[in-house]
Amino acid sequence: MPVGQKAETIGYISADAVSLPSCLAELIDKIGDDTFSFAPVELSNEEFMASVSLIKFCLDKIEGSCPDLYSEIKTIIQRICFFKIQPLDSSAVMYSGSKLNYLVCVFINAAMAEHPLYFWTDKLVHEAAHQMLLAIMLEEEVVLNPDRERYKSPLRTEGRTLTGIYHAAFVIYRIVLAFHHLLRTSCLSDRDRKGIERSLSDYIVKFDAAYEVIRAKGRLTEYGSALMASCEKAVRNYEQMHDATPV
Predict the structure, then answer these.
(1) 8 exposure class (CB count in 10 Å sphere: 0-12, 13-18, 19+)
(2) Which helix (H) or strand (E) covers residue 82, if one does?
(3) Which of 69, 148, 153, 154 satisfies CB 3.0 to 4.6 Å to 209 for a cystine?
(4) Pairing of strands 79-83, 105-109
(5) Window from 15-24, 201-210, 236-245 with minimum mean pLDDT
């Protein structure tokens, strides 16, 4: 974000309040390459307000640990829509989602309330990263592979397009960035610190898996190649600093 530009204010809405069942169905039924079968569940006002408070708390932690990332998130995301669903025929749970049709708006499952702070931070940074890359791809061609090609993804059970793998790597890079900065602060509970340390190690492994697919199978533009190279370099730097941190 340019120096001196003010971060936007995020608006919070409930899927129930704005009658979004068809929009939500499209998002969940056709998000990425996975399919979810679900039934909407009413989101109470208490659950909605608790979700808003948790997201604001996460944003405060991000602002305190990495102001640049905080400003980017508040510029990228203009609206957060909370929803609640009951999976019908699968144990898979959709915690959050983004789609090009709803750019600047992300969807977050209020059922996450039982999870710790770092889990919410993960999903918030995750969706902001998708939004950022979607916006980039509106202006710059990144991946040249046709969508008929499918490859193993570190974040999904089903095969994904190379564009999907690229998204996964970019998202993981952004989460690693956020977690790295959070670990350098003293504002975390023991539960969150241990959760972030464990998740950070797992995400670096997943980034390497995605990066290997991109390196071996990806047909990238010059811009796409340079962007992913910068992500890989940053993850390696964070990995070295993480490994060097005394336990």
Answers:
(1) middle
(2) strand 79-83
(3) 154
(4) parallel
(5) 15-24
Please, how many CA atoms are within 13 Å of residue 12, restricted to the half-sphere of its CB? Answer: 15
Instruction: Determine the Cα–Cα distance for residues 246 and 215; give it in Å rounded to an integer.
Output: 32
Q: How far is CA 133 from CA 4, 63, 64, 111, 212, in A?
A: 23, 21, 24, 26, 19
Among residues 127, 153, 114, 5, which one has the least CA distance to residue 59? 127
Cβ burial, residue 141 (10 Å; 0-12/13-18/19+): exposed
In contact, 29 and 145? CB cutoff 8 Å:
no
Residue 200 backbone dihedrals phi, psi, to 5 degrees: -60, -45
Instruction: Please give the distance of CA 79 from its chain centroid, rounded to a whole number.
Output: 15
Residue reference for tokens 């019908």: 88
**Whole-prediction pTM:** 0.87
Could you read off the pLDDT of 135-174 as tens digits, one per residue? 999 999 999 999 999 998 887 777 889 999 999 999 999 9
> For strand 96-97 and strand 105-109, is the pairing parallel, antiparallel, or unpaired?
antiparallel
Distances (CA, A) of 207 to 31, 36, 66, 170: 21, 25, 21, 8
- Angle of CA points 234, 34, 221, to nearest 5°: 40
Q: Report the Cα 28 to chain-centroid distance in Å.
A: 15
**Pairwise CA distance, residues 214 & 209, whole Å:** 9
Q: Please report the DSSP string for 92-123 in residue order.
A: ----EE--GGGTTEEEEEGGGGGS-HHHHHHH
Q: Residue 209 is encoded by which pair of tokens?
A: 């898996």
